[in-house]
Every structure is written in C-alpha cells, then in structure tokens.
Amino acid sequence: MSEIRTVGVCGAGTMGSGIAIVAARAGYRVVLYDTHEESLERARRQTEGFFGKSVERGKLTREQADAALAASSSTSFLADLAECDIVIEAVFENLEVKRALFGQLDEICPDRTIFASNTSTLSITEIASGCGREDRVVGMHFCLPAQLMKLVEMSPGLNTSEDTFKAAWAFCEAMGQRPVKTKDTPGFVLNYFLVPFNNDVIRLIEAGVAEPADVDRAIKAGLGYKMGPCELLDLIGLDTQVLLCEAFYGVTHDPRCAAPPLLKRMVAAGHLGRKSGRGFFTYDRDAMYGG
Amino acid sequence: MVRYVIVDTGASRSFPGPHPFLERASADGTVTVLLGAGAVAAYRPDPSKAAILVELGTECLGEATGENAGLEGSNTVGFARFRLGDGDPSDLVELVRQPATDPASVEVARAILEEAGLQVSVCSDFAGRILDRLIRPYYNEALTRLDEGLASAADMDLTVKLGLGYPEGPIELLERTGLHHHHDVTKALFETYGTRHYAPARRAVVAKRRAEREAGE
Fold this sequence. Notes:
The complex is a heterodimer of chains A (291) and B (217). With 291 residues, chain A is α/β, with parallel strands linked by helices. Chain A is 46% helix and 13% strand. Chain B has helices spanning 20-23, 39-42, 62-65, 103-115, 131-147, 153-164, 170-177, 179-193, 202-214, and strands spanning 4-8, 31-35, 51-55, 76-81, 92-97, 119-124. Chain B starts with a strand and ends with a helix. Chain A: It comes from Thalassobaculum fulvum. Chain A: The record marks 141 as: Important for catalytic activity.
C-alpha cells in the first residue's frame, strides 16, 4: 500500500464536514465532495469557524489552522477525487446510494485508492459488493461530532484484504484517532446500543412520560453523560435518525429499531434538529459543535 | 423558604446518609416528606398540605394515592433520587406527578429539592420513570451481546466511553453497582410492561441467584 497523502470525503453534511476537519488538522490534503453547492458552502463556513475557535482556545496555532484551511478544498465534481489515496464516504445511509458511489469512484480513482465507508448500520461487505475493488473497501465509522470524538469503529468486510485494513488502521491512527476493531455486524457496537436507545427516548416523550428537557437533565445529572439524548438527536439530525432506523430495522427487525411515529411526524414537519433550527429544541445558529 | 417535615418510614435509598435536604427539614411545615422504604404504605392524604412527597422505589405513585380512570392527582407527588444498585445516589431527583396533580404542589416540591442542591426532572407516573425505563434495555443488550461474544467487555466499555462520551461502560458499571440489583429493577419493569427488552438478562439472573444463595435465602 502506498502512503496516504490526499483524502477524499464524500458528503458535506455534519459527519463528512467533521471527518474532513480531522484529516486536514492532521496535515492531509483534503477534497470534500458534495453534489450540493450550498452544503459545501456551509461546510466551508463551519470549518473556518471551527478552526478559528480552535485557535482562540489554544488547541491550534494560527499557522496550523491556516495550513489546515489551505489544505482543504471542496468540489461538486466527483472526478476531482481522482488523485485521492483514500476516499471516505459519508453520504446518507442508503445501501444502493453508497454502492453506486463506490462503483463510480472505482472508475475514477487509481487502483491504490482505498474506499472507506462511514456507515453506521449497513454491512461493509454489502456496500463493497460489486464495486470492483472489494478487497480495498473498509468500514471506518467516526462518531459524532467527528471533529471532537476520537473513536473510530473499523470493520473489515468479508473480502477486505489484510493490507487494506492495516493501511486504513494506520491512517486512522495518524489522524490522531483511536480505532477499535469491530465485526461487520449491524450497528457494530455503538449504534447497536444507540439507535434503539434514542428511539426509546422518542417513544418516552411521545407517551408523555417527560418533556425533552427533563429527559436530557435526567440523563446528564443521573448518569453523568455530557450530552442529553434529545440534544444528541438534534445534532445527528432527526432525518438521519429515520434513515438509521430504516437501515437498522431492515436488518435486525427489532421493534425498538423501528422509527417511532413522533420521529416521522417531526421530520415531515421539517423539525430536523440543529440543521433546520428546530428539533426537540430550537436553535438560532448553525455554528459547528466544539472548537 | 418553604418549611417541610420529614417522616421516617425506614431505610431510604434516596438519602442513605447526611444531605442538606435532610438537614434543612423542620419540626413543622406546610410540606410533608415521607422518606424511606415504607413511604408508600405510610401515605395518607392530607389536602391541607401544600405538597406531600412520597419516596418511591420501583412502585408507581398510584399504588399510594390510588388511580381514577386517568383523572387521578392531588397535592401528592412521588420522588426518587436516581441511584444504580450499590452506587452512590446521584444529584438527580425524578419527581412524579399524576395527570391531575396540582402544578403548585409540583413546583413546591421542585423548589425544596433544588434548594438542597439537587436537580429535578419531572415525569409522569410510569414504572421506571425516566432513567430506569431508558437505560435498563441498554444494559440488558450489553449483557446479552457479551454473552454472544460479539465484543469483549473491555472493548464494549471502551467503545461506549470513547464513542459516546459516557463516563463508564455498561459492563463495568453493572459489575461495580451490583448485577443482582439490575435483576431486581428489570424484573419489576418486565412485570409491568411485559416486553422482552425488560426481561432480566441471563447474567443478571445468575448474579441474583448467587446473591440469594450467599444470603442464605
């Protein structure tokens, strides 16, 4: 495996933007791809804001922040990922969309390029299937907010080569992340717990047991969690939670993983969380979490 | 400041040791706090009080006050300071109201608890209230996943701590606070809700049986 210098990230949503920051901060050249120019523009704005706050808080020097920003570019043309040594996809949780993306990338990227999927629920083996380089596809699931959380769940598919997995693992460590090896099973470890837990929270609210603020206060004060589940759901995006549910329920058929009716109603009403300014709570700014 | 009287009904899970809430109690007052394991049994209605607080274990408040086709509610609220097994009580108090509970009584109860440095979450009168209802299925799944060998206890705990920022992983937390206590809470929830996610996990059942045998029961 050749050395990784240039990193492609597909999807300029919350997760993709965060992953791009992690890679740029570690000194890699980063190309962020999205089909929507407005998403790229928002990601650029948030990335600048994040690095600015990192300098204010003394976590980066101005020079380091400027270098990371200079190494970051964005594009709405997939062909611009042609020189990447690794491409991490962070598009929405849909098997066919991810498979199609990797199929297109296989035609664009050189043989050396590793494809990594940030999927949190889907099978790495199924995503890789038919892409033309099944041995060079690996699961690389970052945690929200990616720019702050160190953990990466790394999963080999059935056809992933040992060299690919080792190279991706080393790249992950080089970015300052903490990889943990998990099996290619639904939800790996985190979402196996988190998706149904968050659904239980939504059902509890829907049943009138408690208000979102009371639930979050209970979780934080009672268990010492840094973030309440409603706050976290707003950060994840309620539409993303629906997609997670659909993907996860489709594989597990666990009733706790099915999207609760309240979640569907909130998404239908445009209450998507932080990204739309309203979810379980209301927001008046779109700055990226942390810094 | 609202004056309140504490009536001791036995060992309290919420306040097993000294606490400002206990120290601030008076010999008389407009609020009565029934504290301890016998609180539900000791409850008697008293409309003259601004509020009556009844300490709850796994019971619903309705077991003390009675229920009335969804119209129940009075000046009485339930409460429990959240605590996992043998662990120390947290600063979180779940304050339980019924559909027609007087909002003024809820606010009086909230005020005296917050004045003692506690945080209050208000919830309706359901078994498990907020926290046990949410976290017990998660703990059960963790124990089951450990049994199935899908991840080691250490990896599972580490992943949850790093990935979700939780202060403690599920396995180490249950081991520290007593798996047999997890059995008792989930058994009570399972009896109420009847869904498999509340059924005590195998490891909790084993721990409970061992605890009983060691206690000579």
